[in-house]
Amino acid sequence: MSKVSNRTKIATALVGALALASSNLVVANPLADVQKADSKIHADSAASQQKVDKYFDQAQDMLFEYGSVADERESLKSYNDYVAGLVADQQNSMDAIQNDINGVDRLRQGVVPLMFKMVEALEQFVQLDLPFNTEVRKERVENLKNILNTAEVTLAEKYRLILDAYSIEREYGNFVAVHTGKLNLDGKEVLVDFFNLGRVALYAQSLDQKTAWMYDADAKTWNKLEDSYLRDITKGIRIARKQGALDLFALPIPAAETAQ
C-alpha cells in the first residue's frame, strides 16, 4: 500500500472521529433539555396535585357544610310549620272567645229578665205552698230580690244564688221535719210541734200531745184532727226527731186533686 493511501485513510479516520465527537456534543444538549423539561413537568404536576387536593378538601368541607345547612333548614321548616299550626289554633280560639264576648250582651239581655221571673215565681210558690219554714223561705226570697238590684254582685253569682234557692225548695219536698213554733188559732197563739211530710201534708200538735191539727191548703186554715190520730202523729214526730225506731203510722193526707 502506498504512503498516500495510508495518509488518506488516517485522515479519513480522523475526520470520522471528529465528526462522531461533534455528533455526540450535539445530541447531549437536547437530552439535558428534555431532562429539565421532565423535571419541570413533575414539579408542576406535584404542585397541581397539591392544588387539586386542596380544592377537593375545600369542596368536601363545603359539601358537609351544605348538608348541615340543608338539615337545619328542614328542621327549621318543620318547626315553623308546627308554630304556624299553633298560631292558627290560637287564632281560632281567640275568634271563638271574641264571638263569646260579642254574645255576652245578648246573653245578658236574655238572662236578666229570666232571673227576675224566676225570683217572682219562687215568691209566689212560697206563698202558695204549705206554711213551713215560712219566715226563712220568705227571707231568702227577699235577699234574692235585693241581690238582683245590687251592682256589686256579678251576674253569674246572682244566677247561682237563684239556682241554690230553687235547689233548697226542691229538697223540702223530700224530707220529714219537726220544729216547734206558735200556731195562731182564732186569734190565740198555741205552742205546738209542726210536723210536715215533705209537701204532702203539714200537721201541728200541742206540746201536751192532747190536740192535733192538719193544714188545709185550699182553705188556708187548720182543721182539728180526731183524737184517734194523736198516737200516730206523736209516733211520727218522735221518728222525725230520731227519738224512736222507724215504724209505720197512719195519718190523713189531703186528697190528690187538692194537694198543693
List descriptors.
13% strand; signal; 260 residues; rod-shaped; alpha+beta; UCP028069; DUF3450 domain-containing protein; 5-stranded antiparallel β-sheet
What does this structure look like?
This protein is an alpha+beta fold and about 260 residues long. Helices cover about 65% and strands about 15% of the residues. It is built from 4 helices and 5 strands. It has helices at about 5-130, 135-150, 155-170, 230-240; strands at about 175-185, 190-195, 200-205, 210-215, 220-225. Strands 1-2-3-4-5 form a 5-stranded antiparallel sheet, with helices on one face. The chain is rod-shaped and about 160 Å long. Residues about 20-30 have low confidence and may be disordered.
Topology:
Layout: H1 3-128, H2 134-148, H3 155-172, E1 176-185, E2 188-197, E3 201-206, E4 212-216, E5 221-224, H4 230-240
Antiparallel strand pairs: 1-2, 2-3, 3-4, 4-5
Helix pairs in contact: 1-2, 1-3, 2-3
Protein name: DUF3450 domain-containing protein
InterPro entries: UCP028069 (IPR016866)
Keywords: Signal
